[in-house]
Design a protein that fits this description.
It contains no helices and six strands. The protein is mostly beta strands and 94 residues long.
Length: 94
């Protein structure tokens, strides 16, 4: 959720459709960073993926992982931290 300074309630900007693995759902999100375009990158821990949500979107897109839990180069296993480096590359603590 996004909470504006002084707000009495938050606004859901990603997820909000209950736990699950659909593109409009998250399952234990644990970290978020904002990319240069203003999109949220979310470590969706129990779906073993990173979701990117552009402002106003009804669903996210998977940008890393999402191929089941594992240690292959196209898989993640409970990602829990994100950083965007000076080149714009996404670094994932997995």
């Amino acid at each position: 959720q996004r909470w504006a300074p002084g707000a009495e309630a938050g606004e859901t900007v990603a997820g909000g459709k209950g736990k699950g693995d659909a593109l409009c759902q998250l399952f234990n999100p644990v970290d978020v960073v904002i990319d240069s375009a203003g999109a949220l990158l979310i470590a969706d821990r129990d779906n073993h993926r990173i979701q990117r949500w552009v402002p106003g979107a009804a669903a996210g897109e998977t940008v890393a992982g999402g191929k089941g839990k594992g240690d292959a180069l196209n898989q993640l296993a409970c990602p829990f931290g994100l950083v965007i480096d000076s080149t714009g590359a996404l670094l994932i603590a997995d």
